[in-house]
Write the structure tokens for this entry.
Amino acid sequence: MRTVMPAAPEALTVPEVMSALRLSRSKVYDLIRSRQLQSFTAGRSRRIPVDAVRTYIQQSIEEAA
């Protein structure tokens, strides 16, 4: 029997972003509210595209330089 590895997610939950960026829940929601971190809702759940997290990291690095 052959098993297929699941594809990497295209969008993350708030707790996943919290873990990835080592930030608090309130800080992640602050970033979403201030539009520094793009997100969308799927039903009642908030999702953050993986590309949005990468963009946020890149912009943070550029601002720090």
Remarks:
- The chain has a mean pLDDT of 93.
- Residues 39 and 48 are 4 Å apart (CA to CA).
- The helical segments are 14-21, 25-33, 50-64.
- The longest helix spans residues 50-64.
